Amino acid sequence: MSLTIPTDLLPVDGRFGCGPSKVRPAALTALATRGATWMGTSHRQAPVREVVRRIRTGLASLYDAPEGYEVVLGNGGSTQFWDVASFCLIQQRASVSVFGEFTSKFASAIARTPWLDEPTVAEVAPGSVILPRVADADVYAWAHNETATGAAAPIHRIPGSDPQALTLIDATSSAGAMPVDLADVDAYYFAPQKGFSSDGGLWCALLSPAAIERSARLTQERWIPDSLNLQLAVTNSRADQTLNTPALATLFLMAEQLDWLLASGGLAYAERRTHASASHLYAWADAHPLASPFVSEPYRSPVVGTIDFDASVDAAALAATLRANNIVDVEPYRKLGRNQLRIGMFPAVEPSDVEALTACIDWVLERTVA
């Protein structure tokens, strides 16, 4: 049955994806105007290097980076940074936590690295959160926010761990939206296609002096491909460049999002927006007879909301109906296999559009569930 949702119920912008996520129209306009003569120019020259500088200084300001921390950029995405970490930051053994698909992938990448010991793995079923166990480890690693499940983890040094151990945090779906004290982290790394309302093809990391020192030492001890060499990325970033040609549109859009966040109030502003969206979504689901949040408190993500539905609801058909009405990318993460929707609530998403989304879901359910 084809359903047409009344236009007065529809969100102004129907993009709720979890990556790539919504890009603000103002940033796209800037790319099409100010970026028109900038795209297709050399990344070694001043105009592009100035945008890289905007990103590096903007990130340091947004996160109030402690003395000695550096913002480093590299080609690729968070998946690439897992390999960078395996080469350049893990000395012998990592202790990692697994509570979803993306944390699992990093643990797997470490386990496949032949010169490293088998990682110590603390694992819990998707939808909950677990932190790494204290072990004979020189790295502790987990995700700030599990993009697959919508579970958010606390960030702090693992009590009882070696003071020389590094803490690595995958921030791909938390960066630009969720607070963190960088003093508790040695590498806070991410790609910009979620909270930073940009596109893929880049990784960014806020690195502590200890992480940079570890990288410099391991680079001298191991053969490391240039594309995975963190010290080369550090050297190029200090010159406001990347090792290889970057995706210029990704840089431009990320710089625009950073400027918007900083001008609006920084991470506090981003938090208010995501909190407003998430509070509405979870309150709606908690009160709904056919829906419930997948993740329990206190681990519900403010940026990725996963909502389970009663067996009487065909969530796949619901997502298809929404997509036919230009409300897109609310399908669940494919490998979870749950009867649910996954809703991106990054800072670029208007909280009023999340309210409109739930009204549209109500409208569809009233007409499709007996």
Characterize this entry briefly:
Pathway: Amino-acid biosynthesis; L-serine biosynthesis; L-serine from 3-phospho-D-glycerate: step 2/3. Keywords: Amino-acid biosynthesis, Aminotransferase, Cytoplasm, Pyridoxal phosphate, Pyridoxine biosynthesis, Serine biosynthesis, Transferase. The chain has helices at residues 25-33, 46-62, 78-88, 101-111, 209-221, 230-238, 248-264, 266-287, 315-324, 351-368, and strands at 70-75, 94-98, 120-123, 139-143, 145-146, 151-152, 166-170, 187-190, 202-207, 291-293, 304-309, 340-344.
Task: Give me some keywords for this one.
Aspartate Aminotransferase, domain 1; alpha/beta; aminotransferase; cytoplasm; L-serine-pyruvate transaminase activity; 370 residues
Write down the Rg: 21 Å
Major pleated sheet: 7 strands, mixed
- What is the number of helices? 10
From N to C, what is the helix and strand string?
HHEHEHEEEEEEEHHHHEEHEH
Protein name: phosphoserine transaminase
Family: Belongs to the class-V pyridoxal-phosphate-dependent aminotransferase family. SerC subfamily.
GO biological process, one term: glycine biosynthetic process, by transamination of glyoxylate
Function: Catalyzes the reversible conversion of 3-phosphohydroxypyruvate to phosphoserine and of 3-hydroxy-2-oxo-4-phosphonooxybutanoate to phosphohydroxythreonine.
